[in-house]
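Why this split exists: single-chain examples teach little about how molecules sit against one another. For that reason, every record in the complexes split bundles all components of an assembly together and asks for one structure covering all of them. Below is a record exactly as it appears in the raw files.
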Amino acid sequence: MGKYLPTEPYRGTRDFLPEEMSVRQQVFQRLYEVIEVFGYQRYDGPVLELTEIYEAKSSREIVEQQLYTLTDRGGRRLALRPEMTPSVARIIAGNLGRLTFPVRWYSHPNCFRYERPQRGRVREHWQINVDLFGSSSSAVEVEFIELIHAMMAGLGATEDMYVLRMSDRVLLDAIFTEILEVEDEQRRQVAGLLDRWEKYPEDKLRADAEEIGLSESRFARLREVVQAGEEILPELSEQARAGSKLIEVMNSRARDRIKVDPLIVRGFDYYTSTVFEVFDASPQNRRSLFGGGRYDNLVGLYSAQAVPGFGFGMGDVTLMDFLSTHGLLPEPANKVDAVVIPTAEALFEPARTAAAQLRAAGVRTTTPLESAKLGKEIGRADKAGARAVVIIGEQDHAEGMATVRDLVSGEQERVALPDVANAVRKLL
Amino acid sequence: MGKYLPTEPYRGTRDFLPEEMSVRQQVFQRLYEVIEVFGYQRYDGPVLELTEIYEAKSSREIVEQQLYTLTDRGGRRLALRPEMTPSVARIIAGNLGRLTFPVRWYSHPNCFRYERPQRGRVREHWQINVDLFGSSSSAVEVEFIELIHAMMAGLGATEDMYVLRMSDRVLLDAIFTEILEVEDEQRRQVAGLLDRWEKYPEDKLRADAEEIGLSESRFARLREVVQAGEEILPELSEQARAGSKLIEVMNSRARDRIKVDPLIVRGFDYYTSTVFEVFDASPQNRRSLFGGGRYDNLVGLYSAQAVPGFGFGMGDVTLMDFLSTHGLLPEPANKVDAVVIPTAEALFEPARTAAAQLRAAGVRTTTPLESAKLGKEIGRADKAGARAVVIIGEQDHAEGMATVRDLVSGEQERVALPDVANAVRKLL
């Protein structure tokens, strides 16, 4: 440790100064509004959870490599939540008697993963989670397809900027069984290979395939299946197709708003049927922005009552990158509306009284804390984004008046003290 | 581990179901609005910080007993933040070049303390933090006195419900030196004794005094000082009084809005001058609700540039208890405005279209996911707090119409599909 403590935030975490925070808040406020207009209610849960709730069903990568863990003095093994889905399943299971299904909930937790920091990956991020519990109808999938497009539209994105790809584990299983004839014990590895398909060059994929024991002809067949995309679906048995929510979605109008892609995998073990990912459509950034799916067995880890679930998480880092790439980030909001400036030490109290009047009228107002030259104070007010300054001068004040100056037009008027708030409000 | 995973949140932490979350959000939304009208901007920082930033200046109790700590794979000793002040001082010090002082900031972080859970104490709480950096003028104290009263008023509290007690460590030091003649090495212990004064009975205080080596006559003098309250201040030397912000506040109009109480201590080591606490005034609950003070040396731990600071943190648990005691908790908000109900399976798509129209008009709307009897769906809509249902029936729909029913009056009207949103909005 040097002479001073370090000022950088812990590696992979972020400080948000007000300008950055304002952008983040505006973006998420738009999302809250869209989500709420779909009838979803906000809930919240703790950062610390028992480690075992992740060991049960999250991905191996998360549990073995990315979990921040600690043990409390009572010997409880705790983790900083890496995602919200196990928490929300726990909360649902613990409150079955209080809830009327279907339950539409959302949250905006901070989540923690011990990752090597790089573009799009941090160790603490803020993630919008939207979940629906209590229905196994494919109407849930349709509702989420509408919701996701509405959320993207709420952020200013048009449908050419992103692609909503949807798959179904029921169909993927049938592809494995009926078409690729993959052994049960190889499935996880082949699914992993599919997950990496677009990220790796062919020779790397071929080497990986060899390593997990796929023959050259199987690998070739796998490549054909990937290339076929949704064209593979008619080759599957009626039985497999009948059990698939995705096939039902394909028979609804929502079909036009997704790209059917049987090879979307997603890493979590708890998904049971449809899974989806939203990709950035811009060629230089074909990354997954967020994704989710159906998890009909997760609540069953906590309770005898099985409750089907569907949901997704949308992290702030990839989302902000997307908005930045497409020029959709909002401007930071201004800081104040008005500054009340006394021209002498003796006028600080009257300035505070005027400021209190402005604040009571909802005008964001500051007053200086130390005496300074009027010009300097006006410059500061302008820099802070104030629209108006209210100057409390000796002569004016003795006559019960103040001067209101519009910092945009430069015009000013002398108004009676009780009318100051109205005069400023007219400018905003 | 039993057959099922536990559904309770980790001991001392809380799940917030939507009704509880709605109350929490409404309370804090009111506070955000008041704080912003005083010109404060929101910032944010990470949950994980290097442990050393707390070791430097937080209270011993926090560091030795209450910190959740862990070590990452890079060997960094980390803590879950127990409070926000060290983080905000770090962020200020790291961004001196970007900032124009005075800086008015606020935040609403979750903070963590390993405490024995009891009334008013939890292990994760949400804390509003408001801080001002860059001025050593007592105008800062005056601004905070106004802000705190405005925040309490924003919550519906009147000034008879709470007391804002303010002290000054400069004066406390002078009381120790000039009146009580406490040795330097005893000060911390005597300050601790003062902090406990109102919580413990006299014989317990006397025993504590004896244990720290205070003679009976010194203890009697201490009791006199406590009883004197602000009457002790004129006995202090001019020099001590001249260095005190509290004496300056006592010469301003803000004097009338505080109770001067030289014996308010607060546990944090970083306070340098004024400290305050807001107490519940109700006799059955004379607890400290929140507090803060001036810390002019904290930024100096991170930087050669000293930046004076003043701020406070207000936790959700004690605040909610206070609001509950005084009948000031808001009602949970309703969940949805309207439910669009199709009377047959074939009408789900038209119902979704009508729902989309309502949502575009800002009406919080759901549609059923499964077919059910109309009466049952209406009952559900009513229970969810909807004001209206929109019934999409076969005959109606064939004629381009729908029925809008007001769930409060029971009245209904048949309207053309494009007018549904307007008809519902009129009811809200």
